[in-house]
From TrEMBL:
It is a single-pass membrane protein; Single-pass type II membrane protein. One of its GO terms (molecular function) is transmembrane transporter activity. It is found in: Cell membrane. The keyword Cell membrane applies. One of its GO terms (biological process) is protein transport. It holds the Pfam family ExbD. Keywords: Cell membrane, Membrane, Protein transport, Transmembrane, Transmembrane helix, Transport. This is Biopolymer transport protein ExbD. Belongs to the ExbD/TolR family. Coiled coil: none annotated. It comes from the Bacteria. The chain crosses the membrane at residues 12-33.
Length: 128
């Protein structure tokens, strides 16, 4: 007489749990919101940088105009003075691609002179 070999069937629930978990992570990442930037702004391209969504940033246009959340800013001093004390340590700048480097460096120097311990320039990751 032959003995029957009982094979246990592998349940597909582990694969289903993995797929559901990956979908959960995807929607958590995709659902992250950030403040909208100006529509006519083209970001500077860089590569190999750590990426994250820009929080409260000041936008610098090619002509040197400053905007914050779509509203015009008179000067770096006015922007810095209007910020709460706990947000003055780090200033984030989003420059337009056509902005001159000298203007950008001078703006960063102004914020450092006003008391910012760190000035972060936000760019987009290069596609090369």
């Amino acid at each position: 007489m032959r003995t029957r070999i009982h094979r246990s069937r592998i349940e597909p629930t582990i694969a289903l749990i993995n797929v559901v978990f990956l979908m959960l992570v995807f929607f958590m990442v995709a659902g992250t919101l950030s403040q909208p930037l100006d529509k006519d702004l083209r970001l500077v391209r860089t590569s190999d940088l750590e990426g994250r969504a820009p929080p409260d940033t000041i936008v610098v246009h090619p002509d040197g105009r400053l905007t914050y959340r779509g509203k015009a800013i008179a000067s770096p001093q006015a922007f810095y003075a209007a910020r709460p004390e706990d947000e003055r340590e780090v200033v984030r700048i989003v420059p337009d691609e056509a902005l001159s480097a000298i203007t950008l460096v001078n703006l960063a120097r102004d914020f450092r002179t006003l008391g910012a311990s760190r000035v972060v320039i936000v760019t987009r990751r290069g596609l090369e």
